[in-house]
Write a structure and sequence with these properties.
The chain is of the alpha/beta class and about 325 residues long. The chain is built from twelve helices and eight strands. It starts with about 20 loop residues before the first helix and ends with a helix.
């Protein structure tokens, strides 16, 4: 300080003495001990500090006679509990795989909804399905519907702590997967209690009335690989959700939700409206929305909270 020394003039400093008795210190130590025990033995503490995981498993498909992959979302606390969970099966779109769900961060959306108490904890399984349309190919080709219904469901129930009853099993999907989710729930209402779809591949008119650009698109070759070239219209009708909704009985057994973007580049918003109209005429309860947006994951991420809440509510209503 500018080269100057500071001096202190006054009485010498006095020592500070704490007037605390030993019994009081012992009581504080006992309280801290009990608080520590409470934290260490509280099962909720373990769940809150753990995080969700996404596992990637391989299963052998008897239907396809080959190994396939499956992503499985496990909620926080799964590894440290004995709880059994409902299961949501989520189906990916064309040219995609089981990894797309996590790559687009949907697991983080699920985490946030669970943390906020908006949805209950659940297992979410995303099976690999190539460009199959989740359908057994015509003429005895690859049996992807059988693979999902028989192999994937049994694998998940055998490998994880699920609640293996229809009332705790739901199905959802995006684009081709949205089509697959609706179609599989309509063809197997005994297996799923609720179904949802985002930007589902729903065709509002017969195949021969589709716009030429859509019929001639690159994607059409994969459609023909499943439904025939030329497309067998009778076979398509057996797997078309709109056609199925017009003739399938007891669809009210399943709770239905579907939405689509108003700027969907494939025009699937018109197909969603057509399915809504068919459901209305048949008196089938359902939830249907058109929201601003295009086709794909960026749109889906703005609405997936709605379908997750929809399924969670149905799980909660189950005994």
């Amino acid at each position: 300080m500018n080269g100057k020394r500071l001096s202190y003039c006054g009485p010498p400093p006095r020592a500070i003495h704490w007037n605390v008795s030993l019994p009081w210190i012992a009581d504080c130590g006992l309280i801290l001990f009990f608080l520590l025990c409470l934290v260490l033995t509280n099962p909720l503490s373990a769940q809150q500090t753990s995080s969700s995981t996404v596992e990637y498993k391989t299963l052998y498909s008897k239907a396809l006679k080959q190994e396939k992959r499956c992503a499985v979302y496990l909620p926080a606390g799964y590894a440290t509990s004995n709880t059994r969970y409902p299961v949501l099966y989520f189906l990916h779109g064309l040219f995609e795989s089981e990894r797309r769900w996590e790559q687009h961060g949907v697991n983080s959306i699920v985490d946030s909804l669970i943390a906020a108490g908006a949805i209950q904890q659940m297992i979410i399984a995303i099976p690999e399905a190539d460009n199959s349309f989740y359908t057994n190919a015509i003429g005895g080709g690859a049996a992807y519907e059988d693979y999902i219904i028989t192999d994937v469901l049994s694998f998940i129930d055998a490998t994880y702590r699920t609640r293996p009853a229809r009332s705790f099993r739901a199905i959802s999907g995006i684009s081709m997967g949205g089509y697959g989710a609706l179609k599989l729930a309509m063809r197997h209402p005994d297996l799923f209690s609720s179904a949802s779809a985002h930007s589902a591949m729903l065709l509002p008119v017969p195949l021969d009335q589709l716009p030429p650009p859509l019929r001639a698109s690159f994607q059409s070759q994969f459609f023909e690989a499943v439904f025939g070239k030329p497309v067998d219209e009778a076979y398509w009708a057996q797997h078309d959700p709109i056609a199925l909704a017009e003739r399938t009985k007891d669809l009210e057994r399943v709770a239905w939700y579907f939405d689509c973007g108003t700027e969907d580049r494939f025009g699937f918003d018109k197909g969603a409206t057509k399915l809504h109209q068919v459901f209305e005429r048949a008196g089938v309860p359902h939830e249907y929305h058109l929201f601003p947006g295009g086709h794909g994951w960026e749109y889906m991420k703005t609405t997936v909270h709605r379908s997750l809440r929809f399924h969670s509510t149905r799980f909660s209503q189950s005994p």
